[in-house]
Amino acid sequence: MKAFLLKAALLAFSIPLAGGASMSVESHAPTGPVILKVVGDIAPTNVDDEAHFDRRMLEQLPQHDFATTTPWTDSRNHYEGPLMRDLLAHLGVEDGSINVLALNGYEAEIPVSDFYDYDVILAHKRDGEAIPVREYGPLWVLYPFDQDDALLSEKMRFRAVWQVMLINVL
Prior knowledge:
Number of helices: 5
Largest sheet: 5 strands, mixed
CATH architecture: Alpha-Beta Complex
Order of helices and strands: HEEEEHEEHEEHEEEEHE
Radius of gyration: 16 Å
Number of domains: 1
Strand order of the largest sheet: 4-3-13-7-8
Oligomer: single chain
Helix content: 10-25%
Structural class: alpha+beta
Distance between the termini: 37 Å
Shape: globular
């Protein structure tokens, strides 16, 4: 019985992977360069009190994709990455807000409710390729702008943070 309860507890803190396998955040530290740190009110963690992700770890999360134009790009592109609501839910976050920090120092506070109202992704691929830093990568909190006119407001554009390096759960 104890073994069953232990396995159930471990499964509760797992991240589903593409293909149905699972990876526990707290037992998997990144093996490649860290491209995302999540700090604040989260559990589980894998490096001290933080969750660190390398590209491989983000690619193993369930992926979502959409095609959209953006106010910053010249054409409609196809983007791929985990849904923000899924990433945060795996870290025990289902409400409140997050502060997203970019490599260039830009910060935006985003209510977690946005991620339930819209299919916002943490895009790591554009048209099947990793997004280069000089072209808004490596990670971009991206709203599906073409799916709802409400997303074209200035308020929502300020929440679409590119060159994401840190998410602080408030």
